[in-house]
Amino acid sequence: MLPPEMSESLPLSVLELATVGSGQSTADALAATTRVAQAADRLGYSRLWVAEHHNMPAVASTSPPVLIAHLAAVTRRIRVGSGGVMLPNHAPLVVAEQFALLEALHPGRVDLGIGRAPGTDQHTALALRRDPAALSAEDFPQHLLDLLGLFGDPRVEGGLAERFRATPAPASVPLVVLLGSSGFSAQLAGQLGLPFAFAHHFGGPNVQAAVALYRDSFRASPALERPYTIVTANVLAADTAEEARRLALPGQLMRLSLRLNRLRPVPSLEEAERDPERAAAEAMPSNAIVGDPPGVVAGLRQLAADTGADELMLSASTHGVAERVRSLELVADAWGPAGLEHPAA
């Protein structure tokens, strides 16, 4: 584990969900994500990932490769990737071709975060996969191996790579990162020698056990010599702790709506303050780090110390894009430039 005083040197990154707020269009949401990406690039954050979700009124990021192509084109140095592509929804060859093309367009800046959850409900997953037999994730390890083989991993024998290539003449390949919130993905990432990103922002209690399992399972690979762990967190900073708690209310109501399966756009601050379920949302257990800059930095240092993370990835959940950008500015300034350097992984 890292001592808290050392964790400030860890790189910080950003997870962007391209959220659609009340009264906003998809175009508004994507313009906001573009603004967040450009701010993260300017401020020195290491990477920015976008998620894959389907049939959700609050999330505009349905196609990570399309959004990544746009964000990489309007930023300068930040790594851009998926957090993640839900591999069971797609043929491995299609994913490999998409991300090989992105890597050719933006060499050395593309991450392929891979997940095995559907990123949606079962009915939508069926519409995406078209075959009820494909709803199971049992084939996920083989599909992941096929993907690595298509990118030229010399350890993979047989499979799709015997007949296909992700792209005809690659000069580099995207960084493949395995995402998860359970021991299954942690162990698989370790066995394959891939970086591992734990979805701590989901609110689950298993981060320390999963990270320990990943490290215990780790085997060096052509991509990675030692374990590399990214831990995500819900983080919102404002000039005062009181203001941060106020701005966090729309995100709390969104998490409640997800828990109750009553999906809706992210409410505005005014709507959230008078929402009849406000008290229930505020009473929900949460591991979010919300406060003024010193308080947020202290929370991030503690998370790094508790998990031994090699990198922390911040997700800000609120209605307004100005508030999300301001949060990134405050955290970057308080964290310091040593913790915003480009990661080795």
UniProtKB/TrEMBL annotation:
InterPro entries for the chain: Bact_Lucif_Oxidored, CmoO-like, Luciferase-like_dom, Luciferase-like_sf
UniProt family annotation: To bacterial alkanal monooxygenase alpha and beta chains.
GO cellular component terms attached to this protein's record: cytosol
Gene3D superfamilies assigned: Luciferase-like domain (3.20.20.30)
Database matches in Pfam families: Bac_luciferase (PF00296)
Luciferase-like domain sequence ranges: 17-310
GO MF terms, alphabetically ordered: oxidoreductase activity, acting on paired donors, with incorporation or reduction of molecular oxygen
Protein name: Luciferase family oxidoreductase, group 1
